[in-house]
Write a structure and sequence with these properties.
This protein is mainly alpha-helical. It contains ten helices and eight strands. The strands form three sheets. It has a three-stranded antiparallel sheet with strand order 2-4-3.
């Protein structure tokens, strides 16, 4: 540390650094000594170079004996012979690029017209390419749809047309005309599903779901009606068996009185099962039906 000499501005900084290493971090002094000497030597070299390269403040002195440069001689323009002009590379390149810009243009492809409020993703039948392998590709960007022939060169060299020859031939393709016509006028329900757009397929699925729900409801109602009719037929069969058995006396009188009072077949069966005929003092027929503690009388 004492070898720094006149560079006392570094004393405090280096002293703090080495004190922190030795006292706080417990670094052995033998390890720090060599590095400190090399650091001091490097500082001495840097400061010496700065002193040597420092510009002098003395003014520049002009030697009066130094000869001044000679004045330029006049040029005789008539004595100079005309040299042949060389073509300018910049001018020729600019003329060539300008000519190319006129004769060539990029092929825009075939822009598909879309209905207002619709997009290319919901209007175009993309499934057609999987079924028919149509000889064109599609590009969808910013809500628009562009069709290109697979032979499209992307550049049109003839300024008379706006499209390349491949796209011009594609515009007259019958399959493409049919697709564009269906996109404009709609697709019939019996058309194969590959020719429907995403919106058309969604409409078909929605209609089929509505039909399926209606058929399921009709099936449920029909099942309930059939169960009711089945039970009614079963009761009529039991009533016919009860009449044919001859166990109940005066069945004709029972049927007549039941129908007059609006009794159902089920009620008549219950009366046949638990009823009995008795004669009162006035010789009036009384039919008594007892069922679950409930008593009903039908008097002729």
């Amino acid at each position: 540390m004492g070898g720094m000499g006149p560079y006392s501005e570094w004393d405090s900084t280096l002293h703090k650094v080495f004190s922190h290493l030795i006292k706080t971090l417990r670094v052995p002094a033998s390890l720090v000594e060599g590095k400190a000497e090399r650091l001091i030597a490097a500082i001495d070299d840097v400061c010496t170079e700065k002193k040597q390269t420092k510009p002098s403040a003395e003014p520049f002195k002009v030697n009066p004996e130094t000869p001044r440069p000679s004045e330029p001689e006049p040029i005789d323009v008539d004595a100079i012979q005309d040299a042949p002009r060389l073509p300018s590379p910049v001018a020729s390149n600019s003329r060539t690029s300008y000519t190319k810009a006129i004769r060539t243009r990029s092929c825009p492809g075939i822009k598909v017209p879309l209905e207002p409020g619709s997009s290319a993703h919901s209007s175009y039948p993309f499934g057609v390419h999987e079924v028919n392998g149509d000889p064109w590709d599609y590009e969808a960007s910013k809500g628009g749809l562009v069709l290109r022939s697979r032979t499209c060169r992307r550049v049109e060299y003839d300024s008379k047309f706006h499209e390349c020859s491949g796209c011009r031939v594609l515009r007259t393709d019958a399959r493409l005309e049919g697709i564009l016509g269906r996109m404009k006028n709609g697709v019939h329900d019996n058309t194969p599903l590959a020719y429907h757009s995403i919106t058309g397929l969604q409409d078909i699925i929605r209609k089929k779901q509505t039909t399926i729900r209606a058929l399921r409801l009709r099936k449920l109602n029909d099942s309930r009606k059939l169960m009711t009719q089945k039970r009614a037929l079963g009761l009529h069969k039991e009533w016919m068996l009860a009449i044919g058995s001859g166990k109940v006396e005066r069945v004709e009188r029972l049927v007549r009185l039941g129908l007059q009072r609006g009794a159902s077949v089920k009620a008549l069966l219950m009366m046949c099962e638990c009823g009995e005929a008795i004669e009162d003092r006035n010789c009036r027929d009384v039919i008594t039906c007892k069922n679950d503690g409930c008593e009903t009388q039908l008097v002729s």
